[in-house]
Amino acid sequence: MKYFSLFAVILLFSYIVKGQTVGLIQHENNSLDDGYVLFAPNTSTTTYLIDKCGKKVKSWQSAYKPGQSVYLLSDGTLLRTGNTNNTTFKVGGSGGIVEKIDWDGNVVWSYIVSDATKCQHHDVKAMPNGNVLIIAWESKTKTEAIAAGLNPSLAPTTVWSEYIIEVQPKGINGGTIVWEWHLWDHLVQDYDNNKPNFGAIASNHQLININYKSTTTNEDWIHLNSIDYNPVLDQIVLSSHNFNEIWIIDHSTSTAEAASHTGGNSGAGGDLLYRWGNPAAYDKGTSATQKLYGQHNAYWIPTGYPFEDQIMIFNNGVRRPDGNYSTVEIINPPVNGYTYDISLPFLPSSTSWNYNYGDPNGLYSQNISGAQQLPNGNVLICIGGSGRFIETTTSGMQVWEYINPVKNTGVISQGTTPSMNSVFRCTYYPSSYTGFASHTLIPGKTIENSNTISDSCHLVLGIESNSDSNKLKIYPNPAKEKINISFIDIESKNVSVQIFNTIGEIVYVTDEEVKGVLVIDIQSFETGMYVVKVDSERGSFSERFIKK
Length: 548
Description:
mainly beta, Immunoglobulin-like, five-stranded antiparallel sheet, four-stranded antiparallel sheet, 6% helix, 40% strand, disordered N terminus
């Protein structure tokens, strides 16, 4: 009977584990949950906002499936791309329309980039001035491509080049293009010396080799799949899937300068300021020096975060020499003012941080996907092909997991093996995000029909900063070696100082008489965000700091 009981318990446990197939899969009790996750299933016209317990907080309807990205803007409207089913540009990532949907579900603005010669695709970026950066394909004929130096033996019937437009929204469905950049203006080739763009590829690293990766069967030669904007540098970072590179260009140019090789803060016009990931693309490397493999979602980490102002990339790892597996990587480009140190191949030679490197069994998505550093230092990862979202600490410990429960035919029932549930990218927004300011966010039920983990989930909000600027200050912040905690008007013999990491663990504690400034050595702390909590006779105070 004893053995039967044990067997029954094992069977029950196996059933629970096996039966939990979609929605919330993991939620560590001590992980911080002060925010929400936004995502748009690729096969659905609905965009969802969930809390960290996997419960639906908000949803928006569109007439279109994603094309591909979706964002929540600071005014509470949804910026969403839509797939118009353009019959010319029928490949992964195709879109065609950009729309804004307000909190109540009304389309308040739309802009179409879709006809036989052009099509929006993959990603857009909202700018601080209210304008929108849009990636689009533009079709070139075989004749035009050969005239630009393409080897005729590599020329398909049409060649899809790339361009970027900055659109100033006007009215309900209009807009003014206030800036544009065309890749076609920045080509180099070493095939035909009778063409004006003839030159040595290695000596023209600022230009794109039109004969690299070109084939007679591939119109989509470049395949940009992400765009981000840095307002401090006034620069744009792009990800080229087919070149296995990220590129940085200058946005401070006029449209005329963007078509040239001079002008702007960098003085380089619309040429590439920086490129990284595959030196072979500009004849400065081999397969042995390649770093990126079909990557997505290159973006600048915000100032104030761990690894601030560096670039995070989801490296899909397609045809990686040691096997197909994905990694998340952070690089620190050698920027000097508005320009980049040129030491070919482009530096850095190694990453500042990576996740899952060297583990073919860890995670893999052949396409789409993305990653985002959170305010607490953790990293939210979208493994797009399987619709799987995970959150990990900077030390690599997984603290949260969610599987998109929506497929092409509707919501996936709990216990059913998920399929056709891919997601281009997911994005985290803290509860303090300005887009939520005038709205009440009330979690409802899970998207799927049931979830035992969600039912038992209890959100643990991060310790809010409640320090009075006249009471408690931490400096420098961010800090690398030491922090100074300045106490003003709370001197006491009975003071407790505690420091918590992002999963709520106490990493430092002291009880001592406090006078003026307490200096704490943090060299042994892992990179990330921490909370200092001070309890005294004058009350409790807390403040956050970042360990670089």
